[in-house]
## 1
Amino acid sequence: MPDRRCKRIFALLSDYVDGVLPDGDCRELERHVDGCEPCIAFLESLRTTVEACRRYGQSQMRSQPPQLPPELRARLVGLVASLRHESAHRKVPARRK
Amino acid sequence: MINSQVEQALVNLKSGKPEEVGRALEMLQGIVYGFGMKVCGRPEDAEDTAQETLIRLARQLKDFPNARALSVWLYKVAKTQCLMSRRKSKFAPAEMLTLDALMPEGSGTSAPQVKSWEITPEEITLEKELRSKLQDAVLALPKHYRLVLILRDMEQLDTREVAEVMGISEKTTKMRLHRARVFVRNALAGYVQGSKSSRVEHHA
C-alpha cells in the first residue's frame, strides 16, 4: 500500500476479503494488487486477522458464564412461564353467547 | 448467521414450560455473557450485562416471529446494557478512526512498511499470547468500531443484522468494520502474517 493513491483500493479490502465486492471494483482491485508484494502481504494479513477474530469469537462462545443466582433464575422462569400462559389464553377467541 | 442456540432457546421459551424456559435462559445467558466479555473485557461487567438483558427479556417478552428477531433484539439490548454498565476502562481510545491514520506509511517509490507477520492463517491456534494481544487490540478500539467488529467477525452476524443492532446503515457498518479490522491488524503486526505463498485470489 505504498502511496495515498491506494486509498480507494485500501477502503475496498474488507469487502474483497468477505467476497462481497462488486465485479467492477473486484477487477480494479485485482489489477492494482496483483504483482504488488506489499499489497498482497497486507491483504493476506487482513484476511488472517479476520480469521483470528472468528476463532477468538468461537473460543469465547465455549466459555461458561457463572450460574444465574437461583432466586433470580426462579423469578425469571416464573415470569416467562406466566407471560407465555397469558399470551396463549389471549389467543383463544372469546366464545359468543 | 443466527446462532443455533438462539433458535433452540426460542423454541424453549415459546413452550412456556418452566424446565425448558430455564434451559433457554441459560443458553441466552451464555451468548450474552460471551458478548459482554468481548465488549467489556471484565467478567463482572459481562455478568451484569447478561443478567440485566435476561431481566428485560422476561419483562418485555413479546412474540418474536423467528430466531433472527430474537437475536437482533438480544444483541441490541445487550449492547446498550454493556455500554451502560461498563466501568472506567484503562483504555482511552479516540472516537474516530480515519483511513489516513490506518494506512501503512510509505510513498510510491520507497519500500512500504508492511511489518512482517510470523504465523500463517493455517497456523493460528489462538495461543495465550495471540489471544491476549487480540483482546487488547479489540478493547482499544473506540466503542462503535469495537461493537461492529465483535458483532460481525466474532458473533458472526451478517452486515444487515449488525446494522440493525447498531441502528446505522449497512454502508456505515461496512466502513466501521473495515477500519476496525485494519486497526486490529496493525496492532497484531509482527505477530500474524498472511500465507507465505500469498497471491491474489481472482474472484470468478
Note: Chain B touches chain A through 79 residues (CB under 8 Å).
## 2
Amino acid sequence: MELAEKIEQYLTGQLSEVDKAGFEAQMAGDIKLSEDVRLQRQTMQGLERIVLKQKIKKARIRYKLYRYLTRWGIPVLLGIVIVFSVLIYKSNLGSYQSFLGKSGLSYHSKLGSFQSLIGKNALPELNEAGGKNWADADKNIEAQTFFIDASVDTVIETAGGIVLSVPANAFLDSLGKTVSGKVEFVFKEALTPSDIINAGLSTTSGGKLLETGGMFFVDARKDGAALKINAKKGIYAEIPTESVKSGMKLFAGKRKADGSIDWVNPRPLEHDVVSVDILSLDFYPPHYLDSLAKWGYGNRGKKFDDSLYYSLAAKFGDLSEEMDRASKPAPQAPASAFANEEFDGSLAPVKKISIKTSERAYTDTVYSLIALALSKKVDSVSFQPQPCGINPAKIKTIWSEKFQNTILSTREFQERLYLLHKFGNDGALDLYVNNLDRPLYQIDSMVAAQSEGKLKERFLEFAATHTGTVNNGSRQFKKLREYYRRQAKLCTDAILKTQAEFRNKKLLLDNESDTKKEKHQNDSAKRADQAFSEEFNLNLKEAYRQLGYKGDIPIRSRLSTKKYSVNITNTGWCNVDRFVDESVRNRATLNFTDSESGKTAVIKYLPVSFSIDESTKYDQVYVYLLPDKLSSFMRVAGSNGKYSGKLNELINYKLVCVAYKEGEAFLYTQNHVESKNYAHIALLSTGKKEMDHVLNNMSNNGLASAIQKENEFLKFEIADEKRRKYNMDNQELTDKLVDFIFPCYADLPKRAPVQYQRPVAEDQ
Amino acid sequence: MNDQEIVALIRNSQYDVSLNKLYKRFPQIRKMILANGGGADDAEDIFQDALIILIRNIRENDFKLTSELSTYLFSVCRFLWKDELKKKNRLVPDFLLNGEAEFEEQEMEGIIERENQAKLAEKVISELKERCRELLLLFYEGQMKLKDIAIKMGYNSENTAKNQKYKCLEGAKKRLNELKQAI
C-alpha cells in the first residue's frame, strides 16, 4: 500500500526531484516494481482515455448537432410533461457516461457535475399529474436532475447520451403562464435491457409484447410544483442510434396500480426536416433545365430560366375567353383550318394583320398552341377547360424568401415537388402550401389518398418515412397561405399583362415593318418604272436616229406599255417602238431593220459580271449600277458573291457595291464599268459619313440619296428579320416547353415544323 | 482561434472548445478514409483515435508544432488507417504509402503501441464494477479529494474510500496484466 502510494506520487508528478531520481533508480533494479509502475501508468492512461473519449464524443455530438446532421438521431417532440417511452433502438453506448452540460447553446461540462447524477432517488409527494401513485420504475431508476434557466435555450446531454434541446420559455405553470428562472428538470432513462429489467419495467402494451430498446421519463418542476411543457415550443429529444429503423413509435406510459407501467397512445416518430436556402433548391418541372441545355439555351442564368418558365403562367390566364372562343369556330374545323387565322400566341382577341405571301412561312409559325388546343377540344363533344400541370405563377410565389423556414424550403419538399409536377393539376401542391403547419408525412398521406397508380405509391412511401416539420420554423402559416392565394393570382395577371404588352408591341412593330416594306416595294416599282421609261426613251431616240427618222418622237409613258402586245401592224414607228420596248424589257441587244428604208438600228446590251471577295462573311451584299443618263439605279441580281447583268452601250455606268455585317457598312465603288468580269472585288469598311460623301460625289442627280434610302431600308429589314426570327425561336421554345411541362398538351396532334425562310432579294 | 491557442487550451485541460475546433477537420478525414477503402464508422474511429493521440502528445511530450494542426491530424489519421488496413491484411492504397508524414514513422509506431495498451486498460476499466469505475474516475480524472469522494459516494470515512480505491486500482492492474499475458 505504501509502495502503491509512492508509485502514484511518482506518476502524478508529486515527488521531489531527489525522490524521483531515487525512485527511478529503485525501479531500474526491480523489474517487478517497474512492471507495476508500467501497469499503473497504463491503467491511468486508460482512465484518461475514457474521459477523453467522452469529451470527443460530445464534441462529435455538438459538431453534428450544429451541422444539422439529423440523420444521426431520432428527434422526438415531447408535447407533454411526462413521457415514459419505449423506443426500439439499438444502443452501443457504454454505461459509464456521466457528464452533464447545460447553459446557453453551448455545452459547459464540469467534472463536478458528477454530483447531480448520484444521490438518493427521493420522489416528491405528488407525481407530475398531481396523483400520488408511482410506478416501480419511478422508484428504481436514478433521477438525473438538471437545474436550468427556463428563459434561455438549453441543450442537455443525459448520462445515456440522449440530447435534449429545451428552447427558452418552454415551461408553463399550472395556470398556463410561462415560467422563468431556475427550473428543476428531472430525467430518468432505462436504455439497456439490464436497466429496464432492474427498473421493473415491462415492455407490454395492452398485454402485447413490444420490441424494446429504451425508455425515458421527463419531469420539470419549479419549487416542487409540476410544470407543463408549452406545446408550441416543445422539447426535442435526440436518441442516438446507429440505424434508424422504420416503424418506431413513441408510447406514453400509464402507471398501473400494481406498480407496473402500461404503454399506450403510440405515436409515430417524426424526422425533423432541415430548412435550407429556398433559392438554392430546384422547383422547376422535371428535366426543365436539361431540356433547355439540350436545345441550346443552357447556362443563360437563373434569371433567364425563371422568366422563361414563369412566362408559361400565361397559359393559365383567363379561361372564360378560351371557352368563348372554343364555342365559336366551326365544329368540324380541322387543325389546319386555323392556319388561315392569326392567333397571336395566347388568349387575347384575334387580330388580323396583313401579311404578304412572301412571308407565308412566317405567318404559319404565328398561330398558336391555343389554336391546337381548341381543335382538340372542338373534336371532343364536351369541352372542359383543364389547366394542365402546375401554374408556374404558383411556383414563382412559393419559390421566394417568404417561404424560407417552412416545410417548403427543404430538400424533402423539392423531392416531392418533382413528382407534384407530374400531376395533371396543382391541387396536390396546394395541399402542401395550405398545410404548412402540418408535418410533411401527413400531407403526403393526403396526396396519396387523392392520387392513383405509381404516384400514389410514391407518396405512400413518402408518408411512411414520417418526415416531420421544420424545427423552430416559421409560424406565419395563415399569412403565407393568404399570400400564396393572392400572389399566385397576381403573378398570373402580371405575366398575362406583360405578355399582352409584348404581343401588342410585337403587332405594332410587325405592322410598322409591313407598312415600310409595302412602301419600299412601291418605291422600287416606281423607280423601276421610271428607269424603264427613261431607258426606253433613250434607246428609242437612238434607234430613230440610226434609222434616219425625223420629227417629233411621241414619248410614251411606260404605263401604256402593256398595250403594245396587242396586234400592231407591221409598219412605221410603232414597230420600232415595240422592238425597243422588248429590247429594254429583256435587256437584250436591239437589232432592227426597217423594211422600208433597209436601215438598221443596233443598240447593244453587253454582259457584265462581278464577284465579291469573301461574300459569305457579310450579312447582306448589294451591287448597284448607277447609269449616268438615267435618274435611277439598278440593283444587280445575283447571290453568293456572283452578280451579273447587262450594260446598255448608250449609257455610262458606275459601280457601287455595299455590304453589311452586324451594322457595319462596307463599300466598293468604280467609275466606267465595262463589259467584262470584275473578279475579286474587295469591300472596305466605311463609316456612314464617308459613304454619304463617296456616293454623293459619284452622282449629283439624287442617286446617292436614293441608294442611302434603300440602304437604310435594307438595314431595317435585316434587324426586322432578326427580330422576327427571335420571336419565332421564342415561340418555338415555348411550344417545346409546354409539350413536356404540361403533358396534356403534348397529347395534342403535333404541328409540322415550320421553316422560316428569308425573303429572297428580287431583281429590280 | 489559431493553432497555438488550441494547443494552449489543451495543455490547460480545456478540451471542449479546442475539440470543437478540431472536429471541423472531420469531413476532410472522412473523405480521405472513404476514398481509401474505409467506411463511415472507420472514419469516426480513426478520427477519434487521432484526436486522443494528438491531445496526449500535446500534453505529455515536448510537443512542437512544426506544421499546421490540421495537417498533423491528417497525417496521423492516414498513418492510423494504413496501420488498420495492414492489421486486417487488406491492400493498402498507394496514397497511404506515399504520403509525406509529419513525424517519424518509428515514433508513430511507438505511439500507437502505447495507445493500444491504453485501449486495453480502457476495456478493463469499463468492465469494472460501476462503483469502482466511478471512484477511479473521480479520483484520477475528476481530481477530487478522497475525503469528498467518501462523502459523495457514501463511504464511512476517507480511509475506507482510500482502501476501496486501492482495491479497485489493484484489481484493474491485475486484470490488465492478465490480458497482456494472454496476448
Note: Residues 70-269 of chain A form one domain.
